[in-house]
Every structure is written in structure tokens, then in C-alpha cells.
């Protein structure tokens, strides 16, 4: 007696299951990328900062605000990233005035209490040797706060803000 023709349903079923597993794997990878903000690997380490910051040049502790995007802690200089504040020795009086406002706003934000920043024990550095760190408190980043207040511009490609207009 002749055997009936088989339509290889087990192979199709296996291929369907394999496709399903690939789909699940891709969805899991996409979810991980979304949760980590587009970064592969573990989330960046955040360190809590509890220094009391004064204004540099005034009496106080070892931690102080230099300008609208830089702080000093002892001999360390830390450039806060994600935004660019006007320069204290700006190209015009308007830029210098905005820089003083940005420094005051940064000082006020830091004085609100503990915050976290990125970088760990060996943070990246800029060409001037300053540590590069992104600060945040809760769900708001310092960059969002400073840019939202109109006291800084975002980092990105293109022309910088003209503070002297």
C-alpha cells in the first residue's frame, strides 16, 4: 500500500515558531533601546552630589559656581553638559549680563538640594581638562531647566546663539 503524501506541516510549524522567536527577540531589543534612551549596554551610572555650592570669588566652601555651565570642586573643574551658557567675559555687555543671570540661575538650581550627575569616577574630559557631566534632579535635567529659562542654548550642530543682538 502506498503511503499518503505528506505536506511537511512540522517543518512549516518549526519555521513559524522560529520566525515568532525572532520577532520576540527584535521587540525585546527595541524595548531595551527605548528604555535606555537609545544606548546599548547598561544604563549610565548616576552619582548623587550633595555639595553646597557658593559663587566662586566669595567666601565659602570648596565647591563654587564659576559661570552658567561650569563649577569648581576644590581643584576639579566640571563642565555641565547638554547646554551652553553665555560667557562671563562676553563679546558685549548684553552677553556678560546674560552670563551673570545664568550663573545666578545655576547657583539657585544647585542650592535646591542634592542632585545626580553622570560620569562615575573617571568621567570624560573636554579639551581644557574639565570633567564633563550631565546633571539632573528627578525627571528634569539641568540642561532643560537652563534652556527653558532662556539662559542657555542647547548643544548641537549649527550656529550658536547670538547673545549680543
Automatic annotation (TrEMBL):
Domain of life of the source: Bacteria
Gene3D superfamilies cross-referenced by the UniProt entry: 2.40.50.90
Protein name: Thermonuclease family protein
Classification via InterPro entries: SNase_OB-fold_sf
Originating organism: Qipengyuania gaetbuli
Amino acid at each position: 500500500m502506498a503511503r499518503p503524501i505528506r505536506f511537511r506541516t512540522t517543518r512549516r510549524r518549526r519555521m513559524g515558531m522560529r520566525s515568532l522567536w525572532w520577532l520576540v527577540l527584535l521587540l525585546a531589543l527595541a524595548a531595551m533601546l527605548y528604555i535606555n534612551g537609545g544606548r546599548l549596554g547598561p544604563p549610565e551610572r548616576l552619582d548623587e552630589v550633595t555639595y553646597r555650592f557658593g559663587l566662586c570669588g566669595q567666601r565659602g566652601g570648596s565647591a563654587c559656581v564659576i559661570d552658567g555651565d561650569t563649577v569648581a570642586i576644590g581643584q576639579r573643574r566640571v563642565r555641565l553638559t547638554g547646554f551652553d551658557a553665555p560667557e562671563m567675559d562676553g563679546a558685549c555687555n548684553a552677553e556678560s549680563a546674560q552670563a551673570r543671570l545664568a550663573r545666578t540661575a545655576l547657583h539657585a538650581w544647585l542650592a535646591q538640594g542634592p542632585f545626580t550627575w553622570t560620569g562615575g569616577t573617571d568621567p570624560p574630559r573636554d579639551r581644557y581638562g574639565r570633567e564633563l557631566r550631565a546633571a539632573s534632579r528627578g525627571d528634569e535635567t539641568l540642561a532643560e531647566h537652563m534652556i527653558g529659562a532662556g539662559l542657555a542654548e542647547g548643544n548641537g550642530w549649527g550656529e550658536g546663539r547670538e547673545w549680543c543682538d
